[in-house]
Amino acid sequence: MIGNSVNLAVQIGDIKLKNPVMTSSGTAGYGSELADYIDVGALGAVVTKSLTLKPKAGNAPPRISEVNGGMLNSIGLANIGIEKFINEKLSTLVKLGATVVVNVAAKRIEDYVSLVELLDSQEGVQGIELNLSCPNVSEGGIEFGSDLKILRKIVNRVRKICKKALIIKLTPNVSRISEFALAAEDEGADAVTIANTYVGMAINIYTRKPKIHNVTGGLSGPAIKPLTLSKVFEARNAIRIPIVASGGIMNWADAVEYILAGATAVQLGTVLFTKPDSPLDVINGIKEYCLGTGIGSVSELIGKVEADIAFSPHVKK
Amino acid sequence: MISPFIEYTEVIKTLRINGRTFRTRFKAPKIASVVKAGQFVMLSIGEALDPLLPRAFSVCDVKDESIELLYVAVGKGTSRIAQMRGGEKARLVGPLGNGFPIVGKLEVVWIVVGGSGAAVLPILTQSIKKAGASYRIFYGARTGGELIGFEDIVFEAATDDGSAGFSGNVIELTKKELKQTRPDRIFVCGPMPMLRAAQREFSDVKETYISVETPMACGIGLCQGCAVKRSDTDDYFLACKDGPVFRSDQIVLEE
Lengths: 317, 255
Hints:
- The complex is a heterodimer.
- Chain A has helices at residues 82-95, 109-120, 142-145, 148-161, 177-186, 225-236, 252-261, 270-274, 278-293, and strands spanning 10-12, 15-17, 21-23, 46-47, 64-67, 70-73, 100-104, 127-131, 165-170, 191-194, 198-201, 203-204, 209-210, 216-220, 243-246, 265-268.
- By secondary structure, chain A is of the alpha/beta class.
- In chain A, strand 9 (165-170), helix 5 (177-186) and strand 10 form a beta-alpha-beta unit.
- Chain A is globular.
- In chain B, 16% of the residues lie in helices and 36% in strands.
């Protein structure tokens, strides 16, 4: 039966998202920047850029470069620091009616714990996303996220003090992301975000210099969607907790693809740079798709790809 | 500060000025009603994914409910934009950035531009005139043939090959004139090597403002890609939010 209403709400830990569309960390500033263009309260959630204990200036420019089908970035976690965020930015987001997920990054396990302690007491924060996957800093980041033991330790320590929804953002720069997703689940994470950017590089052939000051950067954009889609599918077959998909979504159909592959929610990143009002189109497109195909609730679509993994040389049950 | 707009709009027309230099006019009633000299817009072509990112352009001219962009078609993005014809769909986000400072009545402003930095001349000279101030323009290009003419705008030219005006670069020309007389302010717009030279050579004119061009993904403060080194701390400005116009002594233009 084709009705005229669709339930778009999904659940991540204790957070009830009004729809599955979130922003991706590092692509929506602190959320308020996006509010010039759209009602951020209409989103499933706003994920802030990574916050660290102390302010960070970030990497030297050039920090970004467009490549075919995507872009490289190496921002280096430039941010105002957790204290200033809590004092100056959080209340703005709350006033705008946003569901707030704060992304945090650190060089030391203790610093993750300190960051989460600070945020756990903030009423305006609904969830915390741990960045264990930044490809553009020399310590922490990807190093933590590609070491199963360290990842376990961080999630374990943070979970003990975190009452809010805890989401672990994983790096795709590992051979089997499902092992990392499973480790996060074992240690009590409420969800995993799959995934951060892929390490990439571009060279100016005339100057013979890399196009990014830090030589390599993180590749994002439509080029990575098939890559991350397969990682979401791989993880879906390994874990039970929700997956938040992030990787090259340019429109509502990409989002539906991710949901069918096993994502409970999706994050929009690079597309915000080209079209800051795209989240509204994606939310509306998902709704229309559900209406048109007789789906009453978007959660009915999660993981409903009809794929026989017996055929897949890569994905195992 | 006025919030920027997203305008789903279309091209009115594209004109080839000379060589690879083009002017494209867009319907943009909201942006046209508030844009200031030195501010910019981010332009995307329809729903195309290639080029992926929008391109930043400083606004050249405002007429009725439209804005005009002037650019040199060098890369993938600008070459594609140069092919845009009347009626073709476009998306504009703007006006963005701070623009040049408002000048006081009777002030004397020198405008120093090079290459496609000349795009700012129509809108900037209008705003200076409106403020009751006066200006002189120094405009540099490689050859006389690359200089772009604008209606009612008189400039003093400098060309690398000496084919028009002063033989040499526009910074040398301005420096020579600075020995005779001094303006209240200098506004500079052009390619990075020229901006660096301006910083060095005009350092004793405190009120020198330069409009920087940096790689930019979003233009609206989301990506933090357009970092410009601050001179006072180890931190960065964002060209899109804090600039693109900076007082020369506030920033370090790294090689």
